[in-house]
Structure formats: C-alpha cells, structure tokens
Automatic annotation (TrEMBL):
PROSITE patterns: KILA_N. Pfam families: KilA-N. This is KilA-N domain-containing protein. SMART domains: KilA-N. Residues 2-109 form the KilA-N domain.
Length: 258
C-alpha cells in the first residue's frame, strides 16, 4: 500500500487527502471560514453538481474499474472526500481565493510527482524566506535524512512513546552541548515549543548529523532494544563526536593516511 499523500494547508487548516487522492471537502469548507449554506452536503445537492457527477461517471471506461468520486469517512476526523477535479469545483464555489490556492498546490504536487527534485526546490525556497543561509539549508537537508534514519532505527528497536524518543534526543544533546533540548532553547532564548534544529548553526547541524549516524549504526550492530538501551547508544555516539571536536581544538589530529 502506498503512503498517504502529503497534506497542505490554507488559512491554518490542513487540507487532507485520502489514499485514493480524494480531497477533503470538509477541510476546504473549514478553510473557507465555514460559510453558512455552503457545506459539502449542500454543494453535492445542487443541480449543477449532480450534472457534473453524472458527466464524470459517464466518462468512466471499463478499464478504469469502479471509481468512487465522492466518499464519506465516519469518525471524529472523518468527513466528505471528493476526486480532485470535483474538489476544485467545490473550492471555486466556496471562495475564488481558496480555488486559486488549491489549484496552485495541485499543479505543484503534479510537477513534483514528475520531478521529485522540485520538492527540494520548494523546501529550499521556504528556508531562504525564513533567513537560512545556503550552508544552513544544505546542513538541514543532510540532518533531516540522518534524523529520519535514526527515528526509523529507534522504532524498530523498541523505542516507544514520545518520551522514549525525547530520552534519546536529550541523550544525544547532553554530551554535545551540555544540556537537554530545553536547556538549548533557554540558551538560545527560544520558545518552549521551538524546533531546536531550525535554530542551529551549520556546524551544530553537521555535528548532530554525525552523532545520529553513529548512533543508528551502533544500535543496529549491537541489536539493543528499549528506551534506555537505545538512549545509552545515542549518548555514546555523541560522546565520541564530542571527543573528536575537543581533539581538533587541541590540535591532536590524526596522522595522514599512508
């Protein structure tokens, strides 16, 4: 089974898509400000919408199989989902601004499907708008890859709950910077919920990247399991990196390779 599509947001509302690429009409309605008499059920009951659905159904060929254009999901996080073209039509009925924004996002996603490098380009542009330097952006990309790998390794080795991952993160931070994530936020004068990685220098990101690579390798090689055991390996890896930094500062370099 393929992974669920990445959601996007408008006016602070995440617009979800299901695994069939259908878009949440409920989320679109919320993003438009929950306008009265424009709920998804009311739009679906309109004569023009019924005609649109009939035409869409008439275009289905036997090779396409059963194609469900509109689907409902029950539960607290459920709602009404519709095929992308229908969702664009609903967005246009809700708000011209929303229609243009959603249309732009869909075009971007389609372009990224054809050329995944465009995802990196979009992320790079977003970091630039936030004031990141070129070197920080590259270090951030590199760090995200090592962090993702470490999280995957931790998950497969019995690290459970957010507390378990937090324990491993703090075990990495302490040898490198003398304190937990909360300590780093205080030192950098950040809010309690700030992402510490987004406020690290290029050097700090590279150091963290190396520590997390070593930790992931060590956990896999030693086959350790559980929150405490994995946190210990994270601490050991960070201690090794911290010692390398100290040696470099003291001028104790390794001899050149023969």
């Amino acid at each position: 089974m393929s992974a669920a599509p990445i959601p996007f947001a408008f006016n602070g509302v995440i617009i979800r898509r299901d695994e069939a690429e259908r878009v949440s009409l409920t989320d679109l309605w919320k993003a438009a400000g929950r306008p009265r008499k424009k709920k998804p059920t009311e739009w679906l009951a309109r004569e023009s919408t019924v005609d649109l659905l009939d035409m869409a159904q008439s275009l289905i060929t036997p090779k396409m199989g059963q194609l469900e254009f509109v689907a409902s999901q029950a539960g607290r996080h459920g709602g009404t989902y519709a095929q992308q073209t229908l969702a664009l039509s609903y967005a246009k009925w809700l708000s011209p601004e929303l229609h243009l924004a959603v249309n732009q996002v869909f075009f971007e996603r389609q372009a990224e499907e054809r050329d995944p490098d465009k995802i990196l380009d979009r992320a790079e542009a977003a970091y630039r708008r936030r004031g990141f330097t070129e070197s920080q952006i590259q270090a951030r990309f590199m760090g995200k890859a090592s962090r993702s790998r470490l999280v995957s390794v931790l998950s497969h080795h019995g690290v459970k709950t957010p507390n378990g991952f937090r324990l491993c993160t703090n075990a990495t931070y302490k040898p490198l910077w003398g304190g937990e994530a909360s300590h780093i936020r205080q030192r950098k004068q950040l809010s309690e919920k700030a992402n510490t990685r987004e406020h690290m220098s290029e050097k700090e990101l590279v150091v963290l990247h190396l520590a997390e690579i070593l930790a992931a390798e060590s956990i896999e090689q030693k086959k350790v399991r559980g929150n405490k055991a994995c946190a210990l390996e994270c601490a050991r890896a960070a201690q090794s990196v911290a010692r390398l930094i100290v040696q470099h500062k003291q001028g104790n370099h390794l001899p050149p390779a023969s």
